[in-house]
Amino acid sequence: MHLRRRLLSATVLAGALAAALPALAEDEAATVAEVLVTARRDDRTSKGATGLDLSLTETPQAVTVVDREFMDSFGLDEVNQVLSLVTGVNVEAVETDRTYYNARGFDIKSMQVDGVGLPFTWNVVGALDTAGYEKVEVVRGANGLLTGTGNPSGTINYVRKRPTNDFRGEGELTVGSWSRVRGEVDASGPFTASGLWAGRVVAVVEDKESHLDLYGNDRTFLYGVAEGQVGDNAILTAGYTRQDNKSDGVLWGALPMQYADGTQTRYDPSTTTSMDWTQWATLSNTAFVELIYALPGDWEAKGIVTYNDFDERSVLFYTYGNPDIQTGLGLFGWPANYEQNSNRLLFDASVAGPFEAFGRRHEAMLGVSLSDMQSGYLSYPAPADHPAWGPLPAFPGWTGSEIAEPAWGAPHQEANWTYRMNRLFGVVHLDLADSLKAIVGFNAIDVKAEGNSFGESMASEEGAVSPYVGMAWTFAPGLSLYASYSDIFEPQGESDETFRPLGAARGDSYEAGVKGEWMGGRLYAAAIVFKARQDNYAEYAGATPEGISYYRGVDTRSKGVELEVAGEVAPGLKLSGGYTQLEIEGREGEDVRTFIPRKTLVLSAVWRPPAVPELELGGNLKWQDEIHLENWLGAIRQESYATLNLVAAWQVTDRVKATVRVNNVTDEAYLASLYWDQAFYAPTRNVQASLRYSF
């Protein structure tokens, strides 16, 4: 029986018992509800890879699950912090307010919320708060079956918090380095005595400065959700999320990494090229309605409609050029004032359930997804004779007041385009034998874009049908071998130097491995090999004298190994993390995308000593090898480095928990990314203290 249906049955049963048998009172109902809430949040089950209820060992792809307990232990309040601790994932903080992710050598362009693909997401602008999510799943490798588009990198699936069957809540206050103050409240419970309807509210207010001069950030986050039973067979859920993010003293671009003679620059980690009038503000409003209907024969129909409105306002100052090593002169500026609005409407519907064939029980799922996005961009020009264009004063040494904010001109429309994607997808989980399972799926997609963006036509229309095949063989108790294959079809809006659309990137992805569970499923480990190919991938190739960018299609190959572990290795001691080693080459065997580390190691541990149950100790260790980026002046390098975060917590009472965290304990100074030939330094050592009260 499906988990949602079990939850419905338990809610009805709990209400009936409490009403008809007062002698049993609340204990029986609470016991039933608590068991089902636990099952519903079973972190060993993920629908992120295939849309089916499969354990990690049954899923023929690499899957990492970061649960709420882990995020709370280490104070992972932003998605970037979560993903930086996931095996094989690299977080490219190219600017203070813009981030890219990659895995297995390619950018991660596929995102999901509750298993529903978001086909319009690539880079992340602003800090995405984690307070509204129960867990984050990362599926590495090509996942075209569920997302429709993608490459051999992976898919990030954010799983929303849902209402609970009993009243519970908590509030937390955090203070820390750089004047950080954060308050968070999370309250949940039933609306009625029967428990058929329940709701949850999460609210966050945060204000902080930074290790960077001038930079600060204010954020508010609100999430509300209601869920209940409609009739005898349906669950209706409706929710709303609002995140308001405003940053001041932002970096658009970053520090120049080379002097005019090619020598690599070195700066204090607090150095910035920003001005005190810059800002980057985003406002995201998302509403969703989900209906799950229980069909005969343990089948289930699900439909979800999601609407998102995203506003972005940025007043920016870009610095470019290469300063003289002696004088610090040689930099120029580019002031910019942009206003963007985009709205997205997504509809996703599927039907799933078991069926009998050849004397065995199998599962199938068939779905359709319709997506529509409209986006527009306005720019407010700066006067051509304003000092912001340069030449600029000697750098470093700026205080942020050297250049006054321009008197911006009337707005000009830079972009106005629409993007539509329709797809049909299906998957069958075949029980071939007691120890042998197979997954066969397909994804049929049609994509159409219209309009223009910064002088480039966005007009394109493409379609493809991509297969997905995977198998898992349980060759010993708790141990399985698996292999999978997926086609890659990724529409691209970029144009070549003749302004003809590049067309879609295409390729394929293979992976195989061994997975195991021990200690009653409390410990999970995997060893994985992978190989991927992607042709015609859009890579920046230059710009016209008018400033219009053009691209070229490149062919890239990636292969490597991953080792991963998660779970309880000894009483009270939990470990999670893994090691990744990969090669990324072009068609001729040359190294490409050298800004991506070839070797990474991440390991997290949480220890609750059985003899002192009130105490919790933990730490994160992350290491990567050398990366570099080459241009006409030479190479920019970031040597290998490791960072260490430590945490200690004490359960003061049943309701009160105090925690102290020290991040970057060794005060390592390192560049946050070499995605571009400008960069800035990641946060230095900082201390955070929090007090949590449960009610």
Key descriptive features of the protein:
single chain; 58% strand; 695 residues; five-stranded mixed beta sheet; disordered N terminus; 5 helices
Please characterize this protein's 3D structure.
With 695 residues, the protein is mainly beta. The strands form six sheets. It has a 22-stranded antiparallel barrel. It is globular, with a radius of gyration of 26 Å. Residues 1-46 have low confidence and may be disordered.
Number of helices: 5
Largest sheet: 22 strands, antiparallel, barrel
> C-alpha Rg, in Å?
26 Å
Helix content: under 10%
Enumerate the spans where pLDDT stays under 50 for 5 or more consecutive residues: 1-46
Counting helices, strands and paired strands, the structural category is mainly beta
User: How far apart are the first and last residues' alpha carbons, in Å?
Assistant: 33 Å
Shape: globular
Secondary structure: elements and pairs:
Elements: H1 3-20, H2 25-40, E1 45-46, E2 54-55, E3 62-67, H3 68-74, H4 79-83, E4 89-95, E5 98-103, E6 106-107, E7 110-113, E8 116-118, E9 124-125, E10 133-140, H5 144-147, E11 154-160, E12 168-176, E13 180-190, E14 197-209, E15 216-230, E16 234-248, E17 255-256, E18 279-295, E19 299-321, E20 331-357, E21 360-379, E22 412-433, E23 436-453, E24 456-457, E25 460-476, E26 479-490, E27 505-518, E28 523-543, E29 549-570, E30 573-586, E31 599-607, E32 615-624, E33 627-631, E34 634-638, E35 641-651, E36 656-663, E37 678-679, E38 686-694
Parallel strand pairs: 7-11
Antiparallel strand pairs: 1-2, 3-10, 4-5, 5-6, 5-9, 7-8, 10-11, 12-13, 12-38, 13-14, 14-15, 15-16, 16-18, 17-37, 18-19, 19-20, 20-21, 21-22, 22-23, 23-24, 23-25, 25-26, 26-27, 27-28, 28-29, 29-30, 30-31, 31-32, 32-35, 33-34, 35-36, 36-38
Helix pairs in contact: 1-2
